Amino acid sequence: MSYVDGFVVAVPTANKAMYKEVAEISAQVFKEHGVLRVVECWGDDVPDGELTSFRKAVQVRDDETVCFAWMLWPSKEARNTAMPKLMKDPRLQPDQLPMPFDGNRMIYGGFKVFVDV
Fold first, then answer.
1. What stretch of H or E contains 14?
2. Of the options 3.30.70.100, 3.30.870.10, 3.40.1390.10, 3.40.50.300, the CATH number for the domain spanning 3-112
3. Closest C-alpha to 1, from 44, 36, 42
4. Rounded CA gap, 21 and 32, in Å?
């Protein structure tokens, strides 16, 4: 069964082009390691919530945009096999590919697909 990794980050709006470049490079590396699909989304209609929201979850600031992304893996096993290799891949190291956002405010998780229409 397919497996999804998803994350939400707050990206400085001025870093949109840099974020896109990092996302495109990262997607190619992830695909080489077995991911089937990578989708990166730039926030367009992300309202403030009264109790919870994407914006609150990543503590978005006035000069930032919320981004949501997900990666589709063939299985959790494929993801678990690839992830240690990805973390060591020199193309994804911070000195080679600096992240244009504060990773401390990233929220992420892995999800089992149970409905896919």
1. none
2. 3.30.70.100
3. 36
4. 17
Written in H, E and C, the secondary structure of 51-109 is: CCCHHHHCCCCCCEEEEEEEEEECCHHHHHHHHHHHHHCHHHCCCCCCCCCCHHHCEEE
Render pLDDT for 72-114 as a digit per residue (tens, 0 to 9). Answer: 999 999 999 999 999 999 999 999 999 999 999 999 999 999 9
Instruction: Give the confidence band of 34 by pLDDT, cuts at 50, 70, 90.
Output: very high
**Using alpha carbons only, what angle is made at residue 20 by residues 14 and 24, rounded to the nearest 5 degrees?**
165
| pTM listed for this prediction | 0.91
